[in-house]
Amino acid sequence: MKDSLNQNFISIYNKEAQNNYFSPGRVNLIGEHIDYNGGLVMPCAITFGTYLLTAPNNDGVLRFRSVNFEESLEIPLQPSYQKDGEGWYNYPLGVFEHFLKDGHQIQGLDMLFYGDIPIGSGLSSSASIEVVTAFALNDLLKAGYSKLELVKIAKAVENHFIGVNCGIMDQFAVAFGEKDKALMLNCDTLDYQAVDSNLGTHLLAIINTNKPRKLAESKYNERVEECAAALAALQQKLDISNLCDIDAATYAGHEYLITDPIVKNRAKHVIEENDRVKLAAIALAGNDLAEFGRLMYGSHDSLRDLYEVSGKELDAIVEYSKTNTNVAGARMTGAGFGGCAIALVEETAFEDFSRELIKYYTDKIGYAPSVYSSLIGPGVGILS
User: Fold this and answer.
1) What is the tally of structural domains in the chain?
2) Annotated binding-site residue numbers
C-alpha cells in the first residue's frame, strides 16, 4: 500500500514523500449511547484507516490532495484559517488552525491522503483524518504534545472548526488503539484499561447497512434530553452526577422516581449497558467469546427495544447472525438509525457468512449490504 501511494505522490507532486503516517478507524464493541452519560465504552481500532504522505515545499502553501476525492485545496500560509465550504480537507485544515492558535510556526507542506474506511459508515473516518493529521504535525514540528493532547485537539477541531457536537470516544480509540486489545474507556474521567481481546479463530465482520445515513440530529438530541430527565428524577433520592454512577440493582430500587415510561426505558438501557461493558471486559480477558457474544446480543436487543435507535436494516443483520452457528455474537455499533453492525465470525466461515447474509438482507430489505473483515489493529503511528 505504501509503495503504491508513494507512486501516486510522485505523480502528483513530482517528488517522493518524506514521511508516511497511518491512523485507523474504529468500531465500538459494546457500550452504546453511554458516552454522554458518564459511563464505560469499549471501542477498538480496526485495520481500515487513513494514510497520510507528506513532503515539505518552498512555495509557502499547504496542499491537500486525496486519492478518494477529486476536490483538493491549495492555500497560502497565513496566521489562521476558517472552514472552507464542506470539503473533506476541512478536517486536516482545522488541525493546522489549532496548531497555529497554539503558537506553532507552520511551513509549506504537500500532503496526500488515502482512506479505505467506507465513507458515511459510522466507522470514524473523520476522527481518523483528524488524528493522523495531528500526529503528523506533532512529529514534523516536534511540538511535544502527548497522545491525549492530540486526541483533545482532534475533538476540538470536530466540535469548533467543523461544527459537529461529538464526544471523545472516536478520537481516543483511533489514537490509543492497540493490536488485539479493546479499550475500556471511562467517558467521564478518560481513564482507560486495555483489555486483551484475542479473537482466536474468529474475526470481526463489519456490515454496512448501506442505508442512506440521515442520523436525525433531533432523535439524538431527544435521547440526550430523555437521559437528562431520568437523571434529574433519580437525583431526588440519589447523590449522582451521571446515570452511569449507579448499577442496574440500584436503578431497579429507584426507577419508581421516573414517571414517564419512555424515559424509564432510556435510563434502563444506559445503566444496564454500562454493566454489560464491565462483564464484557471480564469475558474478553478470559477468552470467553460465547459469553461476550451473549452480551453483544443483549446490547442490541436493548438498543432496539429500550433505546429505540436500531431499525429494520440493523435488526435484519442481527436476526440472521443469530441463525448462523459460526457467529459468536452480533450487534449494531455506533449511533444507530443506519450505519454498521458488527459480528464475531469464524474466520474459515467468513465467505459463507458474507454470501448468505447478503442474500438474506437483500431479500428482506431490497438492496445489499457491504461486508468487510477486520482484525483489532494498532492506533495512529508512523509507517515503517
Assistant:
1) 1
2) 32-35, 66, 120-126, 158, 220
